[in-house]
TrEMBL record:
<feature type="region of interest" description="Disordered">
    <location>
        <begin position="96"/>
        <end position="146"/>
    </location>
</feature>
<dbReference type="GO" id="GO:0051213">
    <property type="term" value="F:dioxygenase activity"/>
</dbReference>
<comment type="similarity">
    <text>Belongs to the alkB family.</text>
</comment>
<dbReference type="GO" id="GO:0005634">
    <property type="term" value="C:nucleus"/>
</dbReference>
<dbReference type="GO" id="GO:0046872">
    <property type="term" value="F:metal ion binding"/>
</dbReference>
<feature type="region of interest" description="Disordered">
    <location>
        <begin position="176"/>
        <end position="209"/>
    </location>
</feature>
<feature type="compositionally biased region" description="Low complexity">
    <location>
        <begin position="97"/>
        <end position="108"/>
    </location>
</feature>
<protein>
    <recommendedName>
        <fullName>Fe2OG dioxygenase domain-containing protein</fullName>
    </recommendedName>
</protein>
<dbReference type="InterPro" id="IPR032862">
    <property type="entry name" value="ALKBH6"/>
</dbReference>
<feature type="domain" description="Fe2OG dioxygenase">
    <location>
        <begin position="132"/>
        <end position="285"/>
    </location>
</feature>
<dbReference type="InterPro" id="IPR027450">
    <property type="entry name" value="AlkB-like"/>
</dbReference>
<keyword id="KW-0223">Dioxygenase</keyword>
<keyword id="KW-0479">Metal-binding</keyword>
<keyword id="KW-0539">Nucleus</keyword>
<dbReference type="InterPro" id="IPR037151">
    <property type="entry name" value="AlkB-like_sf"/>
</dbReference>
<dbReference type="Pfam" id="PF13532">
    <property type="entry name" value="2OG-FeII_Oxy_2"/>
</dbReference>
<keyword id="KW-0560">Oxidoreductase</keyword>
Amino acid sequence: MSNTPSDPPPTLLSLENYSIKSLPRNAYYIPSFLTPSESTTLLGHISKHPWTTLTHRRLQPHPAPLTPSGHLLTAKSLPEFLVTPVVERILSLYFASSSPPSSSSSSPTGDSNESNEGKKKEGIFTTSPHTRPNHVLINEYPPGTGISPHEDGGAYFPVVCTVSLGGHIILEVTPKKKKAHDENNDDDDANDQSNHTANETNKREEEERRYKIFQEPGSLLITMDEMYTQHLHGILPVEVDEGLDEGTVANWGLLAEETRGRILEGGGRVKREEVRISLTYRDVLKVKDAGKVFGGRGLGRR
Ligand SMILES: O=C(O)CCC(=O)C(=O)O
Ligand SMILES: [Fe+2]
């Protein structure tokens, strides 16, 4: 894949520059991760591959679907069109501070390679079992479709890199429910009264801890750590996204000026005009070479 001179690859900064600071740690949003021509080329490749059709959506698992027990059982590696440029660019991202911030209060650092001298710079897959994504799930969302709140679970190393193509989308992130103690148990004593009040407070706090992440076409969203393990994510099945502003969109400050203008012009409402396609890059923990499993000669993998 080549870039024309008018469409140079993006200059990427260290990850701290893309941190969504209003979210629990850690999430990073990189606008214009892919150029328009790279996005068009990628969409062209995707359109040539077969889709698995669900009730409201279609998807493509590459290089293969996971088994029910969460294994990647294949001798194939990711097809080249999903590796270049996306995986290469993901692997080129690094933390200037040598590791992901351990506290959301840690301050962003510049791009100097000099920090933490002697320590190797860490990327997002440095400590994952295969040190790179080995699986991509492609999802297609026509306007009006979404995905229910869910967590991605234990089959993957807890890092997700999502590339968005086509239209925009809003990812809704909510904390996993704490144990619903006493919720259906409104008996008559003073304890229950205080439990009830505590539940109301919990509910209100949970409402306040809902987050919207606006994903522009060509962007990359990285969620990891507590964002992966302690939260659910989903997409509302609506044709118009509403209630968008500086206070509700967690990555507002990282959006393109033009996008913010469009949202403001619409009074916080944005119509989904185009089909949005997402590519979620992850490292599946358990990989087995199907050739070896079935007694043949393994072909190895990337
Ligand atoms: O399309 C997205 O952005 C989310 C997809 C997703 O949550 C998943 O594939 O698990
Ligand atoms: Fe998911």
